[in-house]
Task: inverse folding
């Protein structure tokens, strides 16, 4: 029954089918949400790209590669592991497409996951010649969904563990629309947003207003648990 009708809220849907809700190798239940999405739209080449994975042990795609024969590219600015196809690369808006070329990423693939604690918006915007069917990207749940704001671009930005990082959910929704994607949900801890190419929406998902999809920060499953305020009062830019 749940697989036969369009879904309004992916975080509710994934609790009603025989997929894991709890995280197996992801931090916030992304394993279950990703499975729920592909239960609706199916997979093609089962190829993923994920960057910002640290050592690759806990990430959004490991369950797919370990248990479902997916393959793909992992990148991180501080770690590498040949057995996981994890490469040490510092991701910027300037180099992201050349890195896709370097590691032979197919132009169309199933899943892209972005979590670099900073320039997430700018890097996704810079991916023009590749088209994943599903995008999972971190948003900043320490700030409201609107206005549509992000950090100013700074190629060497390093997160200092405060609430100054990344991008508002509204800015990601706007960018997604420009790139042909629809926001279908966020995890309940307020970490990741989930986008699907528009061509896979009909019959699978029902678009919802931004305010219904936004989850504020509840890191580690604790409502109100957020990062410390930025004492430097650094600026945001509207996009």
Result:
């Amino acid at each position: 029954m749940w697989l036969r009708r369009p879904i309004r809220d992916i975080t509710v849907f994934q609790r009603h089918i025989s997929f894991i809700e709890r995280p197996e190798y992801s931090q916030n239940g992304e394993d279950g949400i990703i499975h729920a999405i592909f239960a609706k739209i199916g997979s093609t080449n089962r190829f993923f790209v994920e960057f910002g994975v640290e050592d690759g042990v806990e990430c959004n795609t490991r369950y797919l590669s370990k248990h479902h024969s997916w393959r793909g590219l992992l990148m991180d600015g501080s770690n590498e592991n040949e057995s996981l196809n994890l490469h040490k690369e510092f991701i910027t808006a300037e180099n992201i497409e050349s890195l896709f070329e370097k590691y032979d990423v197919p132009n169309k693939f199933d899943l892209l996951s972005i979590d670099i604690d900073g320039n997430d918006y700018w890097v996704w915007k810079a991916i023009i010649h590749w088209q994943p069917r599903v995008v999972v990207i971190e948003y900043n749940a320490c700030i409201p969904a609107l206005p549509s704001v992000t950090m100013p671009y700074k190629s060497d930005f390093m997160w200092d563990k405060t609430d100054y990082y990344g991008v508002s959910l509204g800015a990601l929704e706007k960018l997604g629309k420009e790139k042909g994607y629809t926001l279908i949900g966020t995890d309940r801890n307020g970490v990741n947003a989930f986008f699907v190419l528009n061509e896979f929406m009909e019959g699978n998902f029902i678009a919802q207003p931004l305010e219904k999809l936004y989850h504020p920060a509840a890191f580690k499953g604790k409502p109100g648990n957020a990062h410390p305020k930025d004492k430097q009062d650094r600026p945001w830019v509207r996009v």
The first helix runs from residue 10 to 13. The helical segments are 10-13, 30-41, 62-67, 96-102, 120-126, 169-179, 210-213. The chain has one domain: 10-238.
